[in-house]
Amino acid sequence: MKELNFLNDLVDCFEKLPGVGRKTATRYAYYVIENYSLEEVKNTCSIIVDTVKNIHKCPNCGMYTSEDICEICEDSTRNQQQLMVVKDPKDLITIEKSGQYDGLYHVLGGLISGYNGLQFNENNLDLLEQKVKNNNIDEVILALPLTPNGEVTSRFIEKILSKYNVKISRIGYGLPAGSDLEYADEMTIRRALEYRISTKE
Ligand SMILES: [Zn+2]
Questions:
Q1: How many angstroms does the Cα of residue 144 sit away from the middle of ligand 1?
Q2: Cα 6 to ligand 1 centroid, rounded to whole Å
């Protein structure tokens, strides 16, 4: 029998999403043609287009925002002396949701890989150094994943910042080794922050 390929383009679109294989993508495609009105499809597509068009990275911290500067950087009531380094926006959201931190952030956008070197824009490290050098930062908290690449990255940052008069600490307590922050629950994040280990005074 000849393969029916009338849905292939749509299945290809869904298959690009993380965790979605060909089978699930096909199920989604059938769901859309069977359950969505043309109006709903247009609406969903225009939301995707508008979101992608309007959201960009905050030039100051690297978090996503639709404004010039994100609301965290704009918020002067936050502790301006603490700077937390996280891997990506998802980790920032995990920490924010825990409600246990009210300082500023620096989103790296990736980690340093033991095999492939830098997996994010090098300027991001320069920007971090400039912030520590020029702003009134008392403490840099490294909240990177407890994975080999997270470890390499934390050490590298500690080295870069070691010449500045700033306290450097790492969160880690209670977080499962080898895992990403985004899977940690609120209580674990709270403990990890509370019992953060100072690596340099
Ligand atoms: Zn920002």
A1: 18
A2: 44
C-alpha 2 chain-centroid distance: 45
Question: May I ask the CATH architecture of the domain 64-200?
Answer: 3-Layer(aba) Sandwich (3.40)
The residues of the chain that CATH labels 1.10.8.420 are 8-54
Distance, in Å, from the CA atom of 170 to the CA atom of 118, rounded to the nearest integer, reads: 20
pLDDT in tens, 96-121: 988 889 999 999 999 988 777 777 78
Distance 68 CA to ligand 1 centre (A): 9
Distance (Å, whole) CA 74 – CA 82? 15
Q: How far is the CA of 26 from the centre of ligand 1 (A)?
A: 38
Q: Tell me how far the alpha carbon of residue 131 lies from the centroid of ligand 1, in angstroms.
A: 13
82 and 138 in contact (C-beta within 8 Å)?
Answer: yes
Question: From residue 173, how far is each of 53, 177, 189, 200 by CA, in Å?
Answer: 39, 10, 9, 17
3-state class (DSSP) for residue 170: strand
Residue 176: the pLDDT is 66
- Tell me the whole-structure pTM to 2 decimals: 0.79
Name the CATH architecture for the domain at 8-54. Orthogonal Bundle (1.10)
The closest of 113, 196, 116, 128 to 159, measured between CA atoms, is 128
Half-sphere exposure of 40 (CA within 13 A, CB side): 7
